[in-house]
Amino acid sequence: MAAKSGKNGLLEKWRIDEKPVKIDKWDGAAVKNSLDDAAKKVLLEKYGYAENFNLVDGRLFICTEKSIFLVAVQRDPAGMDPDHIWQLSSSLKRFDDQYTLRVAFIDGRTRQSRELEFTKSVGTFFDENGTLVMDHYEKNVSKLHDALAMEKKTK
């Protein structure tokens, strides 16, 4: 595993056994799962949030209904304020190429929530061989995260 610093540090983590993530691009479930897993890795590894299984377990029905696949906690560095919550959810309809990723932020102090999303063709994120183009996908996920994080700082 490469270190987190450096231009290729984060991208190296996306490889399993030194091979890029490759799927059958005609398998909708595999496409959605690989994009979901990659978005999850961005929040957990790039931003250093901790996955909160208790929230997922406690709200399993709600999470399933809303297609939430990650509930992550952003801890207050000083330990004074309550933790912020980040949620990832997605959708990809059967026989459709339009993938929607939703990032939700719940402020720990105010309990107010905000969310942003993008909807793009899955072809945008995979090459012709079915290999996930992680640097391009990571930029899209980070753009949503950073816009929500910026709103948080300005309020």
Automatic annotation (TrEMBL):
It is found in: Endoplasmic reticulum membrane. Transmembrane segments: none annotated. The keyword Transmembrane applies. Its main location: endoplasmic reticulum. One of its GO terms (molecular function) is peptidase activity. It comes from the Eukaryota. Keywords: Endoplasmic reticulum, Membrane, Transmembrane, Transmembrane helix. Belongs to the SPCS2 family. Component of the signal peptidase complex (SPC) which catalyzes the cleavage of N-terminal signal sequences from nascent proteins as they are translocated into the lumen of the endoplasmic reticulum. Enhances the enzymatic activity of SPC and facilitates the interactions between different components of the translocation site. This is Signal peptidase complex subunit 2. It comes from Conger conger (Conger eel).
